[in-house]
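1st attempt posting a full record on here, be nice pls
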Amino acid sequence: MKKIIYATDFSENSVAALKSAAGLARTLGDDLLALHVYTTGTNGLKNADILKYHQRELLDFCKKHLGAEYDPQLISPAAISGTGVAEEILKFSKDLNVRMVIMGSCGASKLKDRILGTTTGEMIGRSSIPVLAVPPGFEYKQPQKILFSSTYDDQDVTFLKELIPLAKMLQAEIEIFHISHKQEIEALENLDKFKEKVHEQVAFEDINYRTLYSSEVFETLKEAIEKERPDIVLMPDRKNSNFLKRGLTRDMIKKMQYCSPSPLLSFPAMP
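the predicted structure (as tokens):
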């Protein structure tokens, strides 16, 4: 059985992520592991009591914010110690058959919330597992529309194949969204070529395509997300032999997780 890991620092910005994690785990039939990484020496407690303290704090946090939706059969709390939060999440996730890691995204002014956003950004840059960044205040409902930010390249066909099992289980449609700075005729030719590759390799009917023309990719995508409010936005981390371009792609994904009103799903780059 696959697992979803929900990582929290107990900040308000991680509450919406908890509710989304619980909702997705129920829909997908996954086990949900609620994870908190703490530093040792908390509140002057003895070492033997620190773990119990943090486990109880984690359990109370989940019960408080899930309320009647809390299900002890669904959620398994886990508290671990470490100084590097992202590093400890990655270690914990190893060999657990994890579908995705769900975390809160930054959007508030509190120092603790800014730290959470920074950790989520670090996870997006380092994780070999998909990361879902959920904005504060997001109200979970079963996803019906997934917006896939695509460049129409061959990697995106592979990413689409990874996305489709999730879309099928959620019974969600996929909108492949492309922003082009090219002339319309050339852009339409690229779209036709991409559609042909998808048709040859993918067995999924509920896919729509849309192209917008702009030289401002980030701002145009941001405006489209704010206007349409898709349930999930997929921005994959594309492999590129040009390290500068790959770095720019990761920077844009991290930047988007700070401002997207919709949960942002990042797939790791292909090996």
